Amino acid sequence: MGCLFCNVLDKTIPADVVYEDLHTLAFRDIRPVAPHHVLVIPRKHIAAVHDLTDADVTTIGHVILAARKVAHQLGLEES
User: Fold this and answer.
1) Share of the chain residues as helix, strand and coil, in percent rounded to the nearest 5
2) How far is residue 42's CA from residue 64's CA, in Å, rounded to a whole number?
3) pLDDT of residue 34 exceeding 90
4) Count of C-beta atoms within a 10 Å radius of residue 70
5) CA 39 to CA 32: how far, in whole Å?
């Protein structure tokens, strides 16, 4: 089965996608612990934070900006 997030990206696992672009995908958590529990993931496979390299600076920047866009889309900017 492999990486859960890679399977979501490959659409072998269904997801309620709320945002996507060339670099990221954002989808609702299947077991939310908050009213708006959305996961924002890079399209590039990165197994863990400790696997990040200097080459991933742009990728992680895209993830952060996508999270900001999702917050705006869901009306969460003030909170």
Assistant:
1) 35, 20, 45
2) 10
3) no
4) 19
5) 10
